[in-house]
Each structure stands twice: as structure tokens, then as C-alpha cells.
Amino acid sequence: MIFVRDKGRLCNNILQYGHVYAWGREHGRATLSMRFAYKYRYFHLCHTPRHNFMVYLMAKYGAKCGLLPVVSFNEEDADYSQAEAQMLSLRHVVVEGWYAQWHDLFLKYRDEITDLFAFDDSVKARPRRLLDTLPAGQLRLGLHIRRGDYRRFYGGRFCYTDEQYLDIVRQFMALMPGRQVQVVVCGNDPDLNRQAFHEALPGVDVLFPDGNPGEDLFTLSECHYLIGAPSTFSLVAAMYHDRPLYWIEQPDVPLTLDAFKRFDHLFRHIW
User: Fold this and answer.
1) What is the dihedral of CA 45, 48, 51, 53, to 10 degrees?
2) CA 271, 237, 174 angle in degrees (round to 5)?
3) Distance (Å) of CA 135 to CA 18, 117, 229
4) Rounded to 5 degrees, what are φ and ψ at 183?
5) CA–CA dist 23, 16 (Å, integer)
6) H/E element holding 218?
7) Is residue 56 left, alpha or beta, with left meaning phi > 0 and alpha meaning psi from -120 to 50?
8) Distance (Å, rounded) from C-alpha 223 to C-alpha 217?
9) E-strand spans in 188-258?
10) Are 225 and 253 in contact (CB under 8 A)?
11) What is the torsion angle, in degrees rounded to the nearest 10, for the CA atoms of residue 91, residue 108, residue 45 and residue 54?
12) Cα–Cα distance between 86 and 231 in angstroms, integer?
């Protein structure tokens, strides 16, 4: 068994486990996510055999006490051939580190990974009710606003103002002549000026779901286009139905449809 010791937040954990799952699948090795054994219980994976708190504790303290060997992938561009050999030779091992990455294998087993992270019905229920309040047949834009920790991330480079987000939304609407656009706004800023969005987008249905992380992730995944600061949250939302995603890296550069990319490109270029 390969126990995957995840770090970071929800969608970092999904991608970290997905990579190791794909590697294990390719080499006939079973895997288990330590994080999803006890936290973020929004997904099918969390209810599969052995994904429970007792197994998490066993793996955590087994590694801490030296009973389980640990293989780390913590350095970018390092030679990990010996680490992979250990993963193959050891009966039980804990794997950790952001650079446990096998992009081609992830894409090969992407459908299986997406199925493992299928949302529980209880997670989908409230967002579905909210989305059903929007008129059918319109183009739904998911806007992910990331502030909070992004005031420090890369020195605040991607911590954008409401007006910067709104400017990009208006540009998107101009690229969709003749289409009625709905805007679904998810994010982590409790001080978001919602009134400013309604005033700046007259005649547009603007929805603020206010869900938990699982609900917001599902809500964004149900949108036709996605826009946000570079983040694994919007990236994973795009993964489910391969939605076009625009990561705002230079907010002053005019938006074009060519700027929207797919998951299989963006997940190789995570900030």
C-alpha cells in the first residue's frame, strides 16, 4: 500500500493524490490518501475501503515512529528514479511532496481520478438548487476570486481588486455577442463588495453561492467557462468537464478567447 501524505489545501491534495494514484495504477500498486481519509469528506473516494480516520492515524504515527518508510518528492527537477524504485520494492510506504508528479499518467487515468473525486449527493444538493434559480440555456461564467492568503502569495501578485475582476468579466461578455451571460462568483474573501458586482453588471444574473469548499468546487465545475487568479481550485473545477479556464496573470492585458486553456495544459504550469 502506498499511503499518500498530502499537504496544502483541498485542490492541492486532489492533484497530489491523483498523480500518485496514476503512478500506482500504472504499476499495480494500491494507494490511499491520508488527507481524504479524515478531511474534506466531500467525495466518493472518502467512502472507499480503508479511507477512514483509524487508517490515517495508523499511517501518520507509523511514519512518525519509523515503522513505515517515507519517500519524499520535495525538490523540483530532482532525479527521483531511486524514489520510484523504493515505491516499487516496499510493501508499505508513505509518499509525500508536491513534486510527486507524473503528468502523462495522470492524463491516462484522468477519468478514474475524476470518478474517485465525484461529489457526494449531499454536496451537490444545495448548489443545484441555487443554479436552478438561473434561467436555462444561458452561458454560465464561473468567477473564482482568491484573496486572503493571496495577499502574500508571490508577494500579492495575484491579489486582484473587485474592479480588476469586473473589468475582465465585462471583456468576456464582449467576446460573447448575442449570448446572455450568467456570472457565478465563488471565493474566500468575506469582504467582497457584492453590490459593486450587481451595479457594474446591470441586467446580468450574478450569483454568490456562499458554499463550503466542496460545494463551491462543484458549483464552479458546473460553469461553461472559468476565470480566476492562478489557483489549483479553479484548475480542479475545470478538470471535471474539461472547461476552458483563464488564469489572470496580467490583468491589464486584453482578454481573448485564445487565452482560455484546458486542464491538460494548465496542470503542467501551476504557479
Assistant:
1) 110
2) 90
3) 35, 28, 27
4) -120, 120
5) 11
6) helix 213-221
7) alpha
8) 10
9) 206-207, 225-228, 245-247
10) no
11) 20
12) 32
pTM beyond 0.90: yes
Tens digits of residue pLDDT in 223-261: 999 999 999 999 999 999 999 999 999 999 999 999 999
The secondary structure element, H or E, covering residue 18 is: helix 10-27
Residues in the chain: 271
Residue 46 has which C-alpha cell? 472518502
Report helix, strand or coil for 156: helix
SS3 state of residue 253: coil
pLDDT for 253 equals 97
End-to-end Cα separation, the chain, in angstroms: 30
Neighbouring CB atoms inside 10 A of 52's CB total 15
Please name the fold of domain 125-266. Rossmann fold (3.40.50)
Q: How far apart are CA 28 and CA 126, in angstroms?
A: 38
Is residue 241 within 8 A of residue 221, CB to CB? The reply is yes
3-state secondary structure of 155: helix
All cell numbers assigned to 196: 459593486
